[in-house]
């Protein structure tokens, strides 16, 4: 079997296997898998409204995935995308409600605020890693909790004891009448354009700039990078800052597009953590992140339709979705099985 | 004659690439059989076939006359085949015994029975004169000792046939001598040995017969006592090879590198370089001879800016570079072929083309205002690959998949191409075959003849003697003497390296024996 054939077959076989095992789970739980999958399909592609909502769901996954992937490419495990996203969300919403400015200034300002907040949240673990060799996983996990509770407190402060802010001014919103009309008034917003531009930005940084060259070199081999005269510490900090900025922008998507406000949270959004899976599914490449985010966003959003349309309890739905993603992530095993099957065939001949 | 192992007409393919083509190797009982070939000739592949890691596409393997199918390493173990790997497979913070029993732990009432195992290890160690402490922790013992643990591991598992894969690559001359004794002892106790190597001297010293392979082809088997290093080298490379490097007279000019009273500490704060003075002039090669661990690494790291200097000064071209950042040192005209090419020399997961521009990626014409022109990187890579005969599929191939010799050629090409005034070459030929060594030595001499200063650090006396114009002997962080190759002998150098200054040779020899014991 040629390489290209295998590359094409692996994702297809993975998804089919995932769907099959998911079907078995639904069957033994006493639900009709055909109805379940029909509901899933309709939940993703049913009409223009659901398509719009699916794309809206994909948007923050794209940016969170980029954040994780960017750090991975620089040899860092940024598990703090969640926290960086939360502070970005708050910063964007705060700029959105605190002042009213012409849209051409207000909207970019709110997005930049989110990126800066996220970058700052990434800077701290980056600095600690570079200067004191503290492992970034520990710091970023802790920074997640700090982000969650600090923003909750700030939200109470700015809303005079309430648990959500006012809606942002229209001048800071990412919503677009054109997209709403196109998708039967879904919440699809312009953020998807920004997210796709950022995919291009990440590709450009990594593949075209000297900064990207250094980041990748440091990610692969710190000793050789130092030998070659690169500033390893500077690169570690920069990688975390840029990664944090992507994560902050993912927060801006929620603040300026989907919700247009920020409310205090009982727990994490999960988007930042799912971003890890998105990045890994996409093998940490910019294009791969588009694939991972699309898979994650579609399944997550489409799954919401399964309890309503097919009467499958949300717990079963979550297991089924997890199984499908599990199989896609196990592409390596599938590849191995395919290779072995083709080797057997060869022997039989 | 009885053969314990017969590998007959072995063929191994990887896709369209034929790694082993019709190779035959017959190991007699009680002999040391050398397997000789250049890097990438297919020696490791052949041994991996024997050890069950690869399945051959053709040919057959017989053990003690019986045709066998070695499906995996466990089968090889059961057949009494043991392998002493080049890169030791040891758990650093486990004891010797724990490492030896790893994977087949003896148990008593369900609990690992280390005590009996340690006794058995002790007994084996004594039987073969290995002198290994069963309770020592791996990270505390020397590389030579670690290798003996690897040997014990195979003996413990009942190996009758031992495969040594490049066993001397990381050993000091002293340890090599001891290893050779151990191998002879193993033979005396009835074992048989396959020795994989490309060092002709060792083959002449220990082996009974030699099987030569070249580019995957079996060239033939010769009896060691009926051949000589020159013939072996020609068989291996396929052409005549020069042994003593041809070089003309040196015409040294003004000083390029000037080190005064240099003190450098290692990471634990121990002084490894102690008030060291050294200079290297234009148009000469200064070789630093010394036993590993006498401050060579710290010295180079201090010159290149990778390690902080405690006191003293380093001048390059009259410019003070003491404690400058590596990039500033590089830009001051220093090229550096690092000691460990995998750790420092290359980003193994980068394409070889990227690696060739590892220090110049940010400079014009490759890069303008922070944007890299990868076409320029590619062009540069193609030029180096051509000029330095780097055998690779192209600039896009990962550095990891090149053979050691070709990786080293790429590094040397990269460093020489920047046209540095001072070229530091640390163990530039470590682990390379004669063809590559010859090439690298001639390149170093070419640098010298172009009026550059070359500082060569090597653990191999042959290399220091052949290539250097002056030899600085380092011992315990100090240059104890500076001699010329014409006025010294390997013996004198050996004594100097061991810390014996002056000329009380007979006395020193007895003292040397004692030192050995202390270790």
What do you see in this structure?
The complex is a heterodimer of chains A (349) and B (519). Chain A is an all-alpha fold and 349 residues long. Chain A has a domain at 59-297. Chain A contains 16 helices and no strands. Chain A has helices at 3-28, 33-45, 48-73, 81-98, 103-132, 136-158, 177-182, 191-208, 210-220, 222-227, 232-258, 271-281, 286-303, 305-310, 314-329, 331-348. In chain A, helix 1 (3-28) packs antiparallel against helix 15 (314-329) and helix 3 packs antiparallel against helix 11. In chain A, 51% of the residues are buried. The mean pLDDT of chain A is 92. Chain B is α/β, with parallel strands linked by helices and 519 residues long. Chain B has a domain at 244-333 and 423-431 and 461-519: P-loop containing nucleotide triphosphate hydrolases (Rossmann fold, 3-Layer(aba) Sandwich), CATH 3.40.50.300. Chain B has 18 helices and 24 strands. In chain B, strand 1 and strand 2 form a beta hairpin. The longest helix of chain B is centred in the middle third of the chain and has 16 residues, at 173-188. The radius of gyration of chain B is 24 Å and the shape is globular. The interface between A and B is medium-sized, with 19 and 28 residues. Chain B: Pfam families: ABC_tran. Chain B: Residues 5-240, 257-501 form the ABC transporter domain. Chain B: One of its GO terms (molecular function) is ATP binding.
Q: Report the span from N to C terminus of chain A.
A: 14 Å
Q: Biggest sheet of chain B: strands side by side, in what order?
A: 6-9-10-3-11-12
Shape of chain A: globular
The stretches of 5 or more residues of chain A where confidence is low (pLDDT under 50) are: none
Mean pLDDT of chain A: 92
The largest β sheet of chain B comes out as:
6 strands, mixed
Specify Rg of chain B, calculated over alpha carbons: 24 Å
GO molecular function, one term (chain B): ATP binding
Domain ABC transporter (chain B): 5-240, 257-501
Pfam family, one (chain B): ABC_tran
Protein name (chain B): Simple sugar transport system ATP-binding protein
């Amino acid at each position: 079997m040629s390489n290209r054939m295998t590359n094409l077959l692996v994702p297809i076989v993975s998804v089919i296997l995932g769907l099959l095992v998911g079907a078995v789970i639904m069957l033994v739980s006493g639900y009709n898998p055909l109805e379940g999958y029909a509901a899933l399909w309709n939940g993703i592609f049913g009409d223009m409204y659901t398509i719009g909502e699916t794309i809206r769901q994909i948007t923050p996954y794209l940016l969170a995935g980029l954040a994780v992937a960017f750090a991975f490419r620089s040899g860092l495990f940024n598990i703090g995308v969640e926290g960086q996203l939360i502070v970005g969300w708050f910063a964007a919403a705060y700029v959105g409600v605190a002042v009213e400015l012409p849209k051409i200034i207000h909207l970019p300002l709110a997005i930049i605020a989110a990126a800066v907040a996220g970058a700052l949240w990434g800077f701290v673990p980056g600095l600690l890693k570079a200067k004191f060799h503290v492992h970034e996983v520990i710091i970023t996990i802790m920074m997640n909790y700090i982000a969650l509770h600090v923003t909750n407190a700030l939200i109470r402060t700015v809303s005079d004891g309430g648990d959500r802010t006012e809606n942002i001014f229209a001048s800071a919103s990412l919503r677009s009448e054109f997209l709403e009309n196109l998708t039967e008034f879904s919440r699809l917003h312009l953020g998807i354009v920004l997210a796709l531009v950022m995919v291009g930005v990440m590709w450009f940084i990594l593949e075209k700039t000297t900064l990207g060259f250094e980041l990748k070199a440091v990610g692969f081999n710190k000793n050789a990078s130092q030998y070659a005269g690169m500033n390893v510490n500077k690169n570690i900090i920069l990688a975390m800052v840029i990664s944090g900025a992507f994560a902050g922008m993912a927060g801006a998507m929620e603040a300026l597009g989907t919700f247009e406000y920020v409310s205090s949270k009982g727990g994490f959004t999960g988007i930042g953590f799912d971003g890890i899976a998105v990045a890994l599914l996409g093998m940490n490449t910019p294009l791969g992140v588009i694939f991972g985010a699309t898979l994650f966003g579609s399944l997550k959003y489409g799954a919401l339709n399964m309890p309503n349309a097919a009467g499958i309890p949300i717990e079963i739905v979550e297991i089924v979705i997890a199984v499908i993603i599990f199989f896609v992530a196990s592409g390596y095993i599938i590849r191995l099985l395919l290779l072995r099957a083709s080797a057997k065939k060869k022997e039989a001949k | 004659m009885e053969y314990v192992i017969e590998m007959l007409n072995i063929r191994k393919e990887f896709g369209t690439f034929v790694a082993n083509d019709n190779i035959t190797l017959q190991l007699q009982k009680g002999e040391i059989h050398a397997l000789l070939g250049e890097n990438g000739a297919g020696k490791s592949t052949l041994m991996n076939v024997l050890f069950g890691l690869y399945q051959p596409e053709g040919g057959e393997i017989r053990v003690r006359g019986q045709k066998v199918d070695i499906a995996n390493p466990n089968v090889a173990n059961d057949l009494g085949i043991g392998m002493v790997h080049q890169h030791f497979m040891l758990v650093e913070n486990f004891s010797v015994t724990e490492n030896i029993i790893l994977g087949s732990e003896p148990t008593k009432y369900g609990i690992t029975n280390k005590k009996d195992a340690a006794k058995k290890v002790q007994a084996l160690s004594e039987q073969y004169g290995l002198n290994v402490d069963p309770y020592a922790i791996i990270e505390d013992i020397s590389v030579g000792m670690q290798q003996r643990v690897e040997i014990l591991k195979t003996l413990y598992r009942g190996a009758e046939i031992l495969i040594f894969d490049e066993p001397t690559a990381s050993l000091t001359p002293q340890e090599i001598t001891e290893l050779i004794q151990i191998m002879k002892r193993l033979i005396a106790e009835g074992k048989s040995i396959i020795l994989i190597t490309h060092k002709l001297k060792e083959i002449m010293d220990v082996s009974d017969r030699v099987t030569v392979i070249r580019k995957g082809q079996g060239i033939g088997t010769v009896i060691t006592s009926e051949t000589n290093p020159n013939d072996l080298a020609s068989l291996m490379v396929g052409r005549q090879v020069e042994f003593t490097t041809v070089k003309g007279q040196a015409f040294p000019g003004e000083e390029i590198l000037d080190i005064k009273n240099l003190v450098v500490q290692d990471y634990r704060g121990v002084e490894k370089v102690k008030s060291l003075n050294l200079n290297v002039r234009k148009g000469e090669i200064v070789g630093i001879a010394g036993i590993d661990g006498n401050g060579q690494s710290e010295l180079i790291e201090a010159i290149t800016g990778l390690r902080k200097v405690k006191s003293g000064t380093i001048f390059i071209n009259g410019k003070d570079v003491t404690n400058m950042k590596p990039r500033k040192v590089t830009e001051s005209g220093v090229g550096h072929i690092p000691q460990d090419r995998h750790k420092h020399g290359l980003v193994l997961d980068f394409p070889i083309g990227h690696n060739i521009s590892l220090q110049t990626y940010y400079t014009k014409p490759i890069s303008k205002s922070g944007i890299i022109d990868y076409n320029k990187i590619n062009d540069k890579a193609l030029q180096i690959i051509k000029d330095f005969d780097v055998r690779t599929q192209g600039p896009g191939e990962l550095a990891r998949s090149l053979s050691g010799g070709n990786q080293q050629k790429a590094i040397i090409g990269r460093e020489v191409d920047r046209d540095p005034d001072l070229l530091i070459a640390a163990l530039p030929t470590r682990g390379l075959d004669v063809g590559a060594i010859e090439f690298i030595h001639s390149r170093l001499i070419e640098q010298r003849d172009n009026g550059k200063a070359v500082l060569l650090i090597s653990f191999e006396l042959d290399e220091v003697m052949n290539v250097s114009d002056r030899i600085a002997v380092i011992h315990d962080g100090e240059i104890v003497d500076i001699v010329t190759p014409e006025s010294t002998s390997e013996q004198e150098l050996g004594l100097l390296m061991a810390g014996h200054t002056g000329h009380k040779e007979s006395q020193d020899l007895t003292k040397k024996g004692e030192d050995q014991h202390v270790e």
